[in-house]
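Researcher: Can you fold this with magnesium ion in place?
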Amino acid sequence: MFKRKKNKDNYQLDMNNIPAHIAFIMDGNGRWAKKRKMPRTYGHNEGTKTIRNIALEANKLGVKAMTVYAFSTENFSRPDDEVQFIFRLPKTFFDLYLKELMDNNVRICYIGHLNRAPQATQEIIQAAIDQTKNNTGLQLCFAFIYGGRDEIVEATKKIATSLKEGKITENDITEDYFEQHLMTASLPPVDLMVRTSGEQRLSNFLLWQLAYAEFIFTPVYWPDFNAEELHKAIWMYQNRDRRFGGLK
Ligand code: IPE
Ligand code: IPE
Ligand code: MG
């Protein structure tokens, strides 16, 4: 039985085929601001509103997890004032929206190297994780100081230690076992990856997890990405033929 949701836009969604986990490369904040003759930081600030809007809409649609790429391990190479500004954004975001996210049963989670962030940023993020830990709705996962290659290396180190200590043998190292050592171990497999701003690359995001995800690249800058764009992305996903190497 098909259950369809009639949205205000043209994208009628099959509610039985909502992607469980959507990963977003939130790109284009700087160009969005530049177009308005504003500093790049204005775009980053605006982008936080999009995270709130998309998380609430995804939650409503029954998406189980949404991972947002907020700061890559490579983003440290940006000017210091921009990096410092981005590190203050979790406070801006959670001051404005944590209560609302809590009321909507959203659970905050994190992947990356939180210990490389300033102490105050660490505390804000940790508090949001703690406060929402019993929520059962959408898991909103921040990839912040995150790099896909780094994540794979970190997982490999943990496994190497277990091997060295004799807790496992080589044959225990399967794909499933490896996956359990990734930072995303508690999240469902990524079904859909959306990158905004027109760039068509992964920029070191979820390298392992995206092996069989569907990719959507949209020219829309992240601050302009809205509920209709989300519906469109999910609608496109629902019209893809996922074969996982098999035949159909
Ligand atoms: C994405 O927007 C946000 C971060 C990388 C933190 P950008 O800052 O990369 O914006 P553009 O790509 O320069 O427009
Ligand atoms: C990817 O965007 C990282 C985030 C969105 C956080 P970038 O803007 O850093 O990627 P490149 O430099 O264009 O590849
Ligand atoms: Mg960019």
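Model: Folded with magnesium ion in place. The first strand starts at residue 4 and ends at 5.
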